[in-house]
Amino acid sequence: MAGAEVVVVGAGIVGAACAEALTLAGVRVTVIDRGGPAGGTTASGEGNVLVSDKGPGAELELAIASRAEWETVLGRLAGADVEWEAKGGVVVGTGDPAALTAFAAGQVAAGVDARVLTPAEVFELEPLVTRRVTVGVHYPDDAQVQPVLAATALLKAVRARGGTVVPGVEAVGVRRSASGRVVGVETGGEVIGCDAVLNACGPWAGGFAEAAGAPIRILPRRGMILVTSSLPACVRHKVYDADYVGAVGSADADLQTSTVVESTRAGTVLIGSSRERIGFDESLRVRVLRELAAKAVGLFPFLRAVPVMRAYGGFRPYAPDHLPVIGPDPRVPGLWHATGHEGAGIGLAPATGRLITELMLRQPPHIDPHPFRVDRPAVIGA
């Protein structure tokens, strides 16, 4: 296999976005994946592009930048149908409204368009939502994309610019020079020569990093989603309860569920979300599905009479401090990481790709990369 300037290990949405941004800048890229493109975590996502679920701080800044970058990337992918829907999001509370309104106020101060709603205004936006709502917040910038279509379109752009995408090739380590610098990726019997390797392996990034001689703390966090049968238009926005924000930021390994409900272009309704750290256990847990269904009916009572067509799940790359890992590894020159986005990888991918490209080419970064650095205690220890 011919060499490249950069080998991207992982053909999910984050790896694809990084490869697309690098090839746009003229970098010769090869993308490899032990499975097929977008066949892992990306295939098991809902397609969330959210600014609504993050409090003020580095990840919110990345999310705001990435929401804008999605528009730019979509312009470059003109003609590719990735089912982009700038539908907006509605967060609802059914208890004391103080916590949700305070959270929204903090986001507004950080630059998010967040509009507090009365119950009547919520019902105008979502007529079928439960009448127990006491407060809502409308986020016009929340959006949705079909993740497999998006990753596939990004990889198509990589190929069009002379890059290479090779499925069915597993990276098992890196080849290093006498000085310790990366000079290739080992794939079991073959070495792909390169100047740099980007670890975009999602929840498997910790395993590849260890094989490369630079362990990082990335753990799998499983999530499940229910899919209903096709319905007439019924849920207009991405709607979730106020508990979702707490579940996203929790470090608890035990099962947590919160309600996220949205329609797709095909007419099905996606129901999430769950989070639990159980390693790479793929067994179906009926208890999780029951919780998701019960909470969804609590948010949208009409769903009680709607059949569930299927359920699917996947593993998200979880970093202990809930921040992505983006940048060079100081322990192994030429080794880079783009992982740890957990359930926000779809939304954060474009800004991640742009930031990786800026750092590799020593260009001024469009956001501060320091919070996402590899050599922070939560990722590699003290």
UniProtKB/TrEMBL annotation:
The keyword Oxidoreductase applies. GO terms for cellular component: cytoplasm. Signal peptide: none annotated. InterPro entries: FAD-dep_OxRdtase, FAD/NAD-bd_sf. This is FAD-binding oxidoreductase. Keywords: Oxidoreductase. Pfam families: DAO. Coiled coil: none annotated. Residues 6-359 form the FAD dependent oxidoreductase domain. The lineage of its organism: Bacteria, Bacillati, Actinomycetota, Actinomycetes, Propionibacteriales. GO terms for molecular function: oxidoreductase activity. It comes from the Bacteria.
